[in-house]
Design goal:
This protein is mainly β. It has one domain: Nucleic acid-binding proteins (OB fold (Dihydrolipoamide Acetyltransferase, E2P), Beta Barrel). The protein contains two helices and eight strands; from the N terminus they run E-E-E-E-H-H-E-E-E-E.
Length: 145
């Protein structure tokens, strides 16, 4: 006896997906802070806190990214972020307490590239992975679509 074949439900691919099915934030993301690493990452960056500007120019929090880094990239980011330190969040909205508690805030002058699975209804990156800094972009380029 053989199970009946059910038709597959398919959706057309989203236009901003790459061949692996990962979405890219088109203008990049602004680095607004970082949280310290633990375990093998003790003494360096654990995750970056990211944002993008809305159409009114406010810097909105998009979430964090803690994967996709090489050891060299983590060390470079740690050295690059240190002189950008500031006392308060650069984001124009509250940050979840769990992330804000451990955050080291920085001036929002660096732009990076991430890939992610989806952007949630509350504008959070889901399953994001770091791809690197974008020296060819400015923070003003990082705008929510």
């Amino acid at each position: 006896m053989q199970a009946p074949q059910l038709p597959l439900r398919t959706r057309p691919p989203l236009p901003d997906l790459d061949q692996d099915g990962a979405a890219h934030h088109p203008g990049g993301v602004v680095v607004g802070g970082w949280t310290p690493g633990r375990g093998r990452r003790t003494g360096t960056v654990g995750a970056l806190l990211l944002g993008a500007h809305d159409h009114d120019g406010a810097l909105r929090y998009l979430g964090s990214v803690g994967t996709g880094f090489t050891a060299a990239a983590l060390n470079h980011l740690h050295r690059t972020l240190a002189p950008l330190a500031q006392n308060r969040s650069p984001f124009d909205e509250p940050i979840p307490a769990a992330e804000a508690r451990a955050a080291h805030w920085v001036r929002p002058v660096l732009v990076g590239e991430v890939v992610y699975h989806t952007l949630t209804h509350d504008r959070r990156l889901r399953h994001a992975a770091w791809r690197g800094l974008r020296v060819d972009r400015t923070p003003d380029d990082a705008v929510l679509a």
